[in-house]
């Protein structure tokens, strides 16, 4: 299990997080008018209320200006505390944070201000490919949280713009909300109490990089702890894709196949599937080779040189003429970059990934390959690592089943659906009942192996009945032609 620390996260802008609320404690303030005048000069109109929950408010010192675009509200009576608070809400808070960060007009040490609360949010825009709507996601999460987070205070309320899902008590240091807003879903994290007070000095000392890294870390940590068991993760791609890169960090890759995100298309020929697996194996193999580098424009390229027979040995294929000739033809067509079409990443496809391949025989009549490859092929994070089962001799049906699993698990959604009848229909020739049972057994065998390697969760969902089973309880009888098997990728990381 890989550990993740705050150093793995960036600034708010990098992480696409925004400030939505700031609260300052003003413990030694006796004259609101003086502070209000100060903020009014910074572009804030100032108001005051006795209590935060009150709807009515009144203007402070009658010096508000029509040209001021921003607001702050003073709360004069705080339960269990003798002092005044300044509250900045929504885009007013976002602007005020930029003022603090710029440090040209205001510093927290003025008026002995203490940062006591900050809210961060991430907006996930609705997409046409979403399998469920944002309101259905909230309702589904609420139902699931009643089981997985039964001790938390959970509420779903309806407002003018849709649904609001509240997680946790407002009295605690951490409070989480998910709500619909126009054409997107907002995930919002409220942090207060000792947790934010411990970071106050970072702001005073202008340590904004560390301040934002720690809060970004806290945001993603809490979001992950809440949602990592979700059975409807279509609206969590922003979270899972951000953290997925740490899952296999520092792991040895020599006996694994790094599966890139694959396009959801049908491979027309068996040879297409075979060549693509060979290509992924080659990326792993090329990592171990010595190389020289050169650049073309802004793109860095790596040149590797090796006997074709060595790669044949790496893939544990037979050293016969047929296999050798097959590999020679594979490298000969590699320069066409035709295999890149299967990646979903537009950057890959826009890149001249393999600009040059040279094949020649040395003095001993052995084939030598020289391949230039873009550096991005070696460093681009991959969503999933498979034990390289392809290095053993597989039957045609084993290969087909394994490729189907790899292709499905290379999609970005953590929820993986297998429509078994589609798999059966993908075979070009009709198959008998005995062969169908064997294919089902291969499918179960590989899923159980992935669970044992902690690549996937142990629970399996069967649709349309919505039955949940342990993956080791599944038999071929569960794989009827009208059934869909749902498994879930396991993102096994630990936050320090």
Explain this structure.
α13 packs across α15. It contains 15 helices and 22 strands. Helices cover 33% and strands 27% of the residues. The strands form 5 sheets. A 10-stranded mixed beta sheet has the order 4-3-5-6-2-7-11-10-9-8. The chain is α+β, with helices and mostly antiparallel strands and 496 residues long. The chain has 3 domains: 2-244, no CATH class; 256-379, no CATH class; 394-495. It has helices at residues 32-41, 91-102, 134-148, 194-197, 200-204, 208-227, 237-244, 270-287, 308-314, 321-334, 346-350, 376-379, 396-409, 420-425, 433-452, and strands at 2-4, 18-26, 44-49, 58-59, 70-75, 84-89, 114-125, 154-159, 162-167, 174-181, 184-192, 256-259, 291-296, 299-307, 356-361, 367-374, 384-387, 415-419, 459-463, 467-470, 484-488, 493-495.
Q: Which structural class should the secondary elements be placed in?
A: alpha+beta
Helical content (DSSP H or I, runs of 4+): 25-40%
Low-pLDDT residue intervals, each spanning 5 or more residues: none
| Outline type | elongated
User: Order of strands in the sheet with the most strands?
Assistant: 4-3-5-6-2-7-11-10-9-8
Biggest sheet features: 10 strands, mixed
Q: How many β-strand runs? A: 22
The number of helices is: 15
For the record, the count of structural domains works out to 3
The pLDDT mean sits at 84
**What Rg do the Cα atoms give?**
29 Å
- Give the end-to-end Cα distance, rounded to a whole number of Å: 12 Å
- Content of β-strand: 25-35%
